[in-house]
Amino acid sequence: MRDLAQLLKGNTDVLILSLLESEPMYGYQMIKELERRSQGFFHLGEGTLYPVLHRLERGKLVVGRWRRLDGGQERRYYSLTEAGERRLEEQMTAWARFSSAVNLIIKPA
């Protein structure tokens, strides 16, 4: 299980950027969407998510904006910047190349 945690740690940025590619989201929504899309495989806690979001925000890959909901509650929604879109594309290309190379080794023809 520790190995899986290390894999997640190394790929959290691309997972979060991928979630935000489709629409702006708030933190809890991202946690639930990550679990849904991974069919329950990934469980990301707030203590992991928010430092990642803050790092991505400092790197100008995402931007967070407060929105007031109908009931008066405020939520911070995050969305990709142009730089974030470029980084996601780069990481998706790198991931495709990496996973293809790994598959050539672990699943030889």
Polypeptide structure, described:
This protein has 109 residues and is α+β, with helices and mostly antiparallel strands. It has one domain: Winged helix-like DNA-binding domain superfamily/Winged helix DNA-binding domain (Arc Repressor Mutant, subunit A), CATH 1.10.10.10. Helices cover 64% and strands 15% of the residues. It has helices at 2-22, 27-37, 46-58, 82-106, and strands at 25-26, 62-68, 74-80. The chain has a three-stranded antiparallel sheet. Helix 1 crosses helix 4. 13% of the residues are buried. The mean pLDDT is 91.
Layout of strands and helices, then pairs:
Layout: H1 2-22, E1 25-26, H2 27-37, H3 46-58, E2 62-68, E3 74-80, H4 82-106
Antiparallel strand pairs: 1-3, 2-3
Helix pairs in contact: 1-4
Short description:
The chain has a single domain, classed as Winged helix-like DNA-binding domain superfamily/Winged helix DNA-binding domain (Arc Repressor Mutant, subunit A, Orthogonal Bundle). It contains 4 helices and 3 strands; from the N terminus they run αβααββα.
